[in-house]
């Protein structure tokens, strides 16, 4: 399995927080919780966040589900991971809520797959996208664009002029 990371600080991944994109190859049909039965055929990109107390340990849980070591289906993505093969993981370390911004960037480049997938707690159409072409560079570029958006911070009612 290939793992691409874009770590922005020196925090250890076990305690780090962030957003991530999982690349999953899936062929077959499965019931996805309350979203019902769906057929998948190809490569899919899923945007998730790991901002809770476990941080990016959530990615390790996803790997365990994909390898069959964990059979618990807690999130929509668990249904795909159990059916497919995890092909890659992209991580953007941040304490900010950038999951939806990253999903919106990916939606500009990839086909939305299942309405409501991974987005039951936000207003996004989906956090799952289908791709058939080159995707690694596009995901990294989307992460970079989202990261650049957060550089101009607001403080005291005025935009900061600090640029990196």
Walk me through this protein's architecture.
Mean pLDDT is 80; it is low at 1-12 and 152-164. The chain has helices spanning 57-67, 76-83, 99-107, 136-149; strands at 2-6, 18-31, 37-50, 85-93, 111-112, 128-131, 154-155, 158-159. The chain has one domain (2-159). It has a 6-stranded mixed beta sheet with strand order 1-4-2-3-6-5, sandwiched between helices. Strands 7-8 form a two-stranded antiparallel sheet. It is built from 4 helices and 8 strands, in the order βββααβαββαββ. 26% of the residues lie in helices and 32% in strands.
Task: Characterize this entry briefly.
With 164 residues, this protein is of the alpha+beta class.
Number of domains: 1
- Taking pLDDT < 50 over at least 5 consecutive residues as the criterion, the unreliable ranges are 1-12, 152-164
Task: Estimate the strand proportion.
Answer: 25-35%
Strand arrangement, major sheet: 1-4-2-3-6-5
**Helix-residue proportion:** 25-40%
Biggest pleated sheet = 6 strands, mixed
What global shape is seen? globular
This entry's quaternary arrangement is single chain
Query: First CA to last CA: what distance?
Result: 32 Å
Mean pLDDT: 80
Q: What is the rounded Rg?
A: 16 Å
* Run of helices and strands: EEEHHEHEEHEE
* Backbone structural class: alpha+beta
